[in-house]
Design a protein that fits this description.
The structure is a single chain. By secondary structure, the protein is α+β, with helices and mostly antiparallel strands. The protein has three domains: 59 residues, lambda repressor-like DNA-binding domains (434 Repressor (Amino-terminal Domain)), CATH 1.10.260; 39 residues; 125 residues, Umud Fragment, subunit A. Helices cover 29% and strands 26% of the residues. It contains seven helices and ten strands. Strands 1, 2, 3, 4, 5, 6, 7, 8, 9 and 10 form a ten-stranded mixed sheet that branches. The relative contact order is 0.11.
């Protein structure tokens, strides 16, 4: 996994949102998003700060050791401290007990970390379209949209399992949920429910917005309050492309 993928993995293990981790690091969410998308990397001092907050190590984030290395070192030190408190006879007994446990399958582990091992079923190829879904003013989408095939690690992004394609987000109108440069995974379907986030084509432009049915009509709503709602006019072509997962 890349630095960005490892950062996302460790953040989600700690049950922190991107916004919350950014607050703890005293940086903007956009800056953190760039790191998670592998567009940039923090310096060594910041990597240490990230590792401390996420209860991991800088070496894990840099790909030099497994995620559980820090916890395993703590366990080893605790075991050694207990061992050092024993006399010679007690130490011999402790060694015998450990050797006995290594012969029992349910108490042994493989050399590969179960949490980080990735099988073929954990990887999905998905079309990532280069023309971004706009979170701001809208972007034209055509029938010949260029795309790349992106390999997605489903252990990090399990919601992508149901996705049919992915799009880039551009702009800030869907902050704080979606930031400029984010990749959104989309399940293709011709409709979504009121209040859900979807990808829409309206007047030959594509948007990521919240679908809102109100008394006076249908609106595409931005989560960033500085952007006004877009009312869907009856005489303008409107299409729902799918729901954002």
């Amino acid at each position: 996994m890349s630095f960005g993928n490892k950062l996302v993995f460790a953040r989600e293990k700690k049950n922190l949102t991107q916004k919350k981790l950014a607050e703890l690091l005293d940086i903007t969410p956009t800056r953190l998003n760039y790191w998670e998308k592998d567009k940039r990397e923090p310096d060594v001092v910041m990597i240490k700060k990230i590792a401390n907050i996420l209860d991991t190590t800088g070496d894990f984030l840099l790909g030099l050791e497994d995620y559980d290395a820090k916890k395993n070192n703590i366990k080893r030190n605790k075991l050694l401290n207990s061992y050092d408190k024993l006399n010679t006879e007690g130490q011999e007994k402790a060694i015998e007990r450990v050797e006995e446990l290594t012969q029992i399958p349910k108490y042994t582990i493989d050399n590969i970390s179960e949490e980080l091992s990735i099988t073929r079923e954990d990887i999905k190829d998905i079309n990532l379209y280069e023309i971004p879904a706009s979170a701001g003013t809208g972007m034209l989408i055509t029938d010949n949209v260029p795309y790349e095939i992106k390999q997605v690690d489903l252990t990090i992004a399990p919601h992508a399992r149901k996705a049919d394609f992915a799009l880039y987000v551009r702009g800030d109108s869907m902050e704080p949920n979606y930031y400029d440069g984010d990749i959104v995974f989309v399940k293709e379907q011709p409709y979504i429910d009121n209040g859900q986030i979807g990808i829409f084509i309206y007047d030959n432009e594509t948007y990521i917005k919240k679908y809102s049915v109100q008394e006076d009509g249908v609106y595409l709503i931005s989560l960033n309050k500085k952007y006004p709602p877009i009312k869907i006019e009856e005489n303008v072509i409107f299409k729902t492309c799918g729901i954002v997962l």
